[in-house]
Amino acid sequence: MKKEMICIECPKGCRMEVYYGDGKTVEVNGNMCPRGREYAASEIEDPRRILTSSVLCEGLDLRMLPVRTDKPIPKQALLQAMERIRKIRVKEPVRAGDVIAQDFFGANLIATRSATRENV
After folding, report:
1. Same domain, residue pair 26 and 68
2. What is the C-alpha to C-alpha distance for residues 50 and 10, in angstroms, rounded to an integer?
């Protein structure tokens, strides 16, 4: 099978043709650097994405806390990850970079903004 893709690993944005079969990359054409081949292989064999979202806060100065995974998670797990995120509630103050959920589909879910107690 053949798939056309644009590499996002460097500013060149090489247009590549990727030939694959049985979930394995067979041939990559059009890449101008080795990173293009690695990118194409990862997209065919094990696509992963950084997940960004927000979680509900209770009793904090933010209603929604922006979060992201600290490393890419399997693309096929994104919908399950979002279901899990919908159930998370942050009730204690956090700082940007704090772990909100450990072992979150092979990564940590971290806060990307700080949240403090609500002024009463």
Report:
1. no
2. 18
**Owner of token pair 């460097």:** 10
Domain of 103, CATH number, reads 3.10.530.10
Residue 120: inside a domain: no
Sign, Cα dihedral of 10, 12, 13, 15: negative
The predicted model scores a pTM of 0.83
Host domain of residue 106 = 52-111
Q: What is the distance between the alpha carbons of residues 92 and 80, in angstroms, rounded to a whole number?
A: 25
Contacts of 21 (CB under 8 A, 6+ apart): 1
Cα separation, 101 vs 111, whole angstroms: 10
Tally the domains of the chain. 2
* 85-105 confidence digits (pLDDT tens): 999 999 999 999 999 999 999
Q: Cβ distance 16 to 40 under 8 Å?
A: yes
Same domain, 57 and 96: yes
